[in-house]
């Protein structure tokens, strides 16, 4: 424990170096505040982390990103951070950045740009032109209601319009048309938000869909570059970032303000303001259950998280499998919404396929990632184990066997999409809900944090301010998950300290 009287007091102590933590640190450091970021793991970046196996680079969370065409929202945010020109990006195919594919072999491509997207859908479903037009108009209309999404600061109109938050995605799409296949095509990429039929609000669908329609890109050689470039920006503006610093508790003054956080190794960090980029339920554990109102605590701790994932990473033999400059959403079931509540015998019924773009490989893919839904209950019997690079632990032989069997099920499914792919495979690795739980530090390894619910929208809303006067929240649970959602939530968190109008003007002028 440090007891030195001269211990530095930071303006901001940020717990967790996921995108939310790094983005807050960058904004505040650029505004002249002294900032320190504390990360428990060996690698910064949360879902931006990558890892390397058999000389192949694999992304854990970010496989592609939207909103990066010139002048679009994420383009401007990255420009403001000073990292845009340092990111190595590859734009996905104009006519087909996503491919929605069904068990009967039928394929439907999403094109980039709203008009192009609309025209192409109408080409597949000429008799449904009106429904498709109404759908695209609704995407635009809903996205207009979220000021920050459009780099505006005008009031949060969507908060007062109950209809915006309570409109259900499945119900709205179903109301447009009786054509079941079109409904499934429109919701075909719902793995992007782990869509649940009678819960997922349409605004979640709309904000995510629209962002990919305004510039879908892959990160060349992995998504960790965002974390690397943001951490450089933080340090360049005088901020500090420390790894292997697991925050476990906090000290308070008589007014109930946090004075310092305590790490597992006994080290302390003093600060005026504290920002947690950790899941709200875990934040409550760290900062002391007794410091939060039981109403808030019970609500946050009982909120349902979105489902977790089983991620299969395949390395290919040299020059054996062609690189795909688009992603595939494969559905082996008739209703794309039913993949979340899957049947174990026919799992995976729905999954996401992508081939990372590796600069030195050219036309051939180095690897492939396949993301399937997996409920944390499937790995519950090993929940008592823990293993990361920073804290290596042993998992049981049965766990390794479980992963092997699941990998085999996924490869068998892939054979139906790419016959003969097994012959191209050099090696297979996988990550389960436990992997995500241990690295990201959230209860069930949830992919996208707290599940938004159109039936009670305000219940799932997490404010950036907490009952503790100098503790604030950021990250995917605040407004929305994903690169854009988390970046926006970092700005929302920082509005408590920086003039909102001036800050957004800086983003627009970047």
Automatic annotation (TrEMBL):
UniProt-listed Enzyme Commission number(s): 1.3.99.23
Secretion signal, residue range per the UniProt entry: none
Domain Amine oxidase: 19-284
Transmembrane segments: 12-30
Gene Ontology molecular-function annotations: all-trans-retinol 13,14-reductase activity
InterPro entries: Amino_oxidase (IPR002937), FAD/NAD-bd_sf (IPR036188), Retinol_saturase (IPR052206)
Keywords annotated in UniProt: FAD, Flavoprotein, Membrane, NAD, NADP, Oxidoreductase, Signal, Transmembrane, Transmembrane helix
Gene3D superfamilies the record matches: FAD/NAD(P)-binding domain
PANTHER family in UniProt: AMINE OXIDASE DOMAIN-CONTAINING PROTEIN (PTHR46091:SF3), BLR7054 PROTEIN (PTHR46091)
Entry protein name: All-trans-retinol 13,14-reductase
